[in-house]
# Entry
Amino acid sequence: MTAKLKQVMLLWLEGFLEACSLHRVVILCHKSRKLLLRTGQCFLLNGLIFLGSLGVFKWFVNPALEWILPDPCAPVTSQDFCSYNGSYAFLRGGLLQLFYVFWFYPMYMLSFILSNIWYNDVAKYGFEAMEKSELRSAETFRQCDVPASVNMTNAERPSSGFGGVMIDIGEQVYSILLLTFFFMEVYVVGVIPYIGKILNFLLLSWMYAYYCYEYKWNFLEIPLVKRLEFFESNWAFFAGFGSPGVLAIFFLSPLVSGALMAILFPLGQDLTNLSLPQEELGNVQVY
# Structure
C-alpha cells in the first residue's frame, strides 16, 4: 500500500512538473514560426482583448458608473436628490447588463469559436515541429513516445472508406456525450459537503489534461477506446498534469477563468508533444 501510494505521488508530481515546464514551449515555438503565430493569436485575443476588456470594465467603467449614478444616499445629500436613488440604481444595473449582453458575451463566444479553430492548428504545428526536431526523429516520436499498448492498435480499424468514416463519426459523437456527462459529474460532485471542492478540482484537472492530449492522439490516429484505457491506467500523471491549469482559474469568475483557460490551453497542448508518463498504474474508471 505504501509503495503504491508513493508511485501515485511520484506520477502526480511528474505530471505537475511537466505542465509547469513552460520554457519547453518557448523552445518548441522557436522551431515553428506557424506555431508561434497561432499561440500568439490566442494570447492576443484572449489575453489582451478579452481579459483587457474585463479589466477596463472592472477598474474604470464600473467605478465611473457608480460615481455618476451613486447607489447610497449620503447624509449631506438633499432629499430631492435622494428620491432618485432607486432610479439611479436601476439605470446603472441596466447599463451594466448592456455591457455584458453586447460586449462580454459576444466576445466570449467569438473567443470560444476562434480559439477552438486555432487549437487544432496549435496541435498540428506543434506535432510537426516535434517530428522535424533534431532532438527526436519522426520514427522515434511515433514508436517510443507513444506506449506500445496504445500505438499497436492503429491497424485494427479501417483508415479510409465508409467504415472509417462511420467510426470517426461514432467517436466524435461519443466524445461529445462523454464531455456532457463529465460536466454533469463535475457539477454534481461540486455540491457535496466538505470534499466537493476537492473532487471538483480533481475532475477538472483530469478533463483539462485529457483534452490537451486528445489533439495529439488525433494526429496519431489512436482509437478512442485506447485513449481511455491509457488515460485510466495513468490517472495520477494526468491529475498532476491538469492541476496547474485548473489551479490558475479555480477561484476566478466564469468569464475571467474562461479567458485565462483559453490562454493556458495551447500551452498545455504544446507540452503534450514533449511529455508522457513513464509508468502505469491500475485502471481507475474516470469516465
The radius of gyration is 23 Å. DSSP finds twelve helices and no strands in the chain.
